[in-house]
Amino acid sequence: MSDRIPFRVIEIDPAASHKSKSQSTGGIHTRSFSGFYRNLRIVFAGALFVLFFGTAWLQWNGRQAVLWDLADSKFHIFGATFWPQDFILLSALLIICAFGLFAITVFAGRVWCGYSCPQSTWTWLFMWCEKVTEGDRNQRIKLAAAPWGVEKIARRSLKHTLWLAIGLVTGLTFVGYFTPIRPLAAELFSFELGGVALFWILFFTAATYLNAGWLREAVCMHMCPYARFQSVMFDKDTLAVAYDPSRGEARGPRKKGSDPRNQGLGDCIDCTLCVQVCPTGIDIRDGLQMACIGCAACIDACDGVMDKMGYARGLIGYKSEHSLQGGKTHWLRPRLLGYAAALTVMIGALVLALQLRPMVSMDVIKDRGLFRENALGQIENIYLLKIINKTQEPQHYRLRLVDAEGFELHGRTEFTLAAGEMSELPVSVAMLAERPSSSSQSLTFEIQDSDQPGVRSTANSRFVAPMNR
Ligand code: SF4
Ligand code: SF4
To answer: Can you tell me where the transmembrane regions are (predicted)?
Structure first.
């Protein structure tokens, strides 16, 4: 597969192309910058951190607000509990999220990668730690080239300690969504934690440290499947971070205040700042590439240069192919409208399914013994009913057989289950007729909430009887 998205072909003079100076040191050392899109990214990153780190500690009705309880196979989210039988709803939610991502990609390219993807967000956090401990780009390049000494060891140690600390908190939080985080953290920091939980915390600590500290853009370029297939979703009206060559070329230095057009120049002063701030180390002036994660750092850097030069902003910006060709971007296009319509239908169906979700569920398991004769001489079958109260309150239930003339249900038919309780109830069904009309007949069990008759669930099974009695 090509590593260039077929978005725009730009004729570049190779002699005028600058490589990022940082690339000569074997790593990408990005330069600090400021601007609107950086601030926007900080807002998104802050929201993601608050959501990820904060939600795990939040309590709701005396329980962790969001918890995928692996031990009991339950998923708690803000007072609602989902059981394995409900996971079809979770699958539907994931499909809606994937569809939403496709729609956003058609509209604005890789904004997910640039602003919300955890890989990018944690990488920016690790890069900030790098800046705090090792200085800005030029200092880091100098430090990388310097021989090992006290200062280099101290700065590098501090950086890796910070990275590992963030990795540990990330790993703990992630595992804390699957096993209650408060006791987990208490056991971890008192060195009493062992076994599976400790393994997974260390695993995710290492994964965070490696992905955000060392692999960084390599994850986006070589490991992320989204980067591979997102190019097929682009159309000529998709917004993507792009350089406008018709305005920027020919690039070259010039005196501030001079008219570039008189010198045969465009607006690009060839300062390479757009390359120096790029976390993936590419030159956006070469055209849109698969390695571009759409972070807009180059837009901020170039807008700053344009301001200093007294030129209009937007030499690099969010542009569609149509706009780059001098045409108009079509916002309302059939593909986007189709995605919007499909998303609306899917979200509506999910909301309806959530509202209609039965708050009591029942499964019937027939005993392996086919039948037996009871003390009254009746043929009897044994069943085990698994009943779940999916509400957050204790509920009283009634059990009965539906349309089962000639059969009698024996066992507890009225009982109470605590909030979220699953109970296994053994019952038997006796056949009242002496001779069965068939060796196997269908039976329907129904469980009904005594206070809310609309809350009910049914489950089918079979009654087996000997024909030659
Ligand atoms: S930052 Fe702008 S002016 Fe400087 S090289 Fe990049 S495109 Fe040209
Ligand atoms: S070229 Fe680099 S800096 Fe510009 S949006 Fe793409 S990844 Fe970000």
So the answer is: 40-60, 87-108, 162-181, 193-212, 336-356
Q: Indicate the pLDDT class of residue 26, thresholds 50, 70 and 90.
A: low
Nearest ligand for residue 114 CA:
2
* CA proximity to 297, closest of 27, 114, 28: 114
Ligand 2, pocket-test mutation among 119, 121, 239, 284, most atoms within 8 A of CB: 284
Nearest CA to ligand 1 atom 3: 268
Ligand 2 binding pocket includes 290 (Cβ within 6 Å)? no
Domain boundaries of the chain, sorted by first residue: 360-464
Taking only the tens place, the pLDDT of each residue in 119-143 is: 999 999 999 999 999 999 999 999 9
Q: Which residues of 372-405 are buried (b: 16+ CB within 10 A; e: fewer)?
A: eeeeeebbbbbbebebbbbbeeebebebebeebe
Q: Which of 125, 156, 124 is nearest to 140 (CA)?
A: 156
How many other C-beta atoms can be found within 10 angstroms of the C-beta atom of residue 223? 12
- Tell me which CATH homologous superfamily contains domain 360-464: Immunoglobulins (2.60.40.10)
Is 293 close to ligand 2, i.e. is its CB under 6 Å away?
yes
175: enclosing H helix or E strand: helix 150-176
